[in-house]
Amino acid sequence: MKDQYFGDVNDYLKYGILRELIAGGEALHVVWMLTPSDGSTDGKFTDYLSKSQTWREYDPELFDFLRSEVVDRGGRKVACIENWDGLPAAYSSEIVPDARQDRMRWSGAVQETIQEQSLVFFDPDNGIEVPSCPVGRKKSSKYVYWTELVEAWDRGASLLVYQHFTRENREQFLARLSLEFQRRLGASRVMVLRTPRVAFFLVPQKEWASSAERYAAEIQRRWNGQVGVQETIGGATGQSGSREDDVRSRA
């Protein structure tokens, strides 16, 4: 996550998803995995905020807040959402370092704050680690690593993980990572909340699985056409689709 992404259309979907997932009062911990803004045009897609007739109906309170922060005040920092009472959560907002030892210290500090039975959202720039970028390499801060996800899971937290799409076939990509979650975490269920350009892996602990399934169904209903749900249970995959429209991913 970068401050420059705040309030773009993918952020609107992201915060809407989070708000639905804690509708029952679940404790949320947001790990921004912040990296410095890079001066690129990524995150520029805020035109939706001028199209209230199309976009506001999904989550009017959230839409009005983002429009106020981004359009009226020109705010493009994650601190804006941290200070809003519409998304109550604990936040880890430290910049993620590249250097291996610094990354270990950062990760350890985050893990120490994770509470059992909470929902932890990891929000890296790119998503889950790739073989070409091991911990300690330049730009490794853009990825969350399996060791970090496993540790959070072992602490008793359910997980939500941001993932941008790669050039791999999307169906194969999502199925492969879903099965990898099952293999590495021993999770019995993995749900993918799939938007037109990015995806979110929802991995609930057993005690929260039925509630997570209800929330996911409500997300799909509320965000009809923008978020589809795909689920993997014991190696079997089923899905319902989302519309492929012109919503650009972060990179």
Detailed description of the structure:
The chain is α/β, with parallel strands linked by helices. The chain has 8 helices and 10 strands. Helix 1 crosses helix 8. The longest helix has 16 residues. The radius of gyration is 17 Å and the shape is globular. The C terminus is likely disordered.
Q: What is the rounded Rg?
A: 17 Å
Note the total helix count.
8
Distance between the termini: 10 Å
Order of H and E elements: HEHHHEHEEEHEHEEHEE
The major pleated sheet works out as: 8 strands, mixed
Helix content: 25-40%
Structural class: alpha/beta
Broad shape? globular
Q: Walk across the major sheet and give the strand order.
A: 2-1-3-6-8-7-9-10
- Count the strands? 10
Strand content: 15-25%
Low-confidence stretches: 240-251
Average pLDDT for all residues: 88
Q: Which key features would you list for this structure?
A:
251 residues; eight-stranded mixed sheet; two-stranded parallel ribbon; disordered C terminus
What's a concise summary of this model?
The chain has 8 helices and 10 strands. It is of the alpha/beta class.
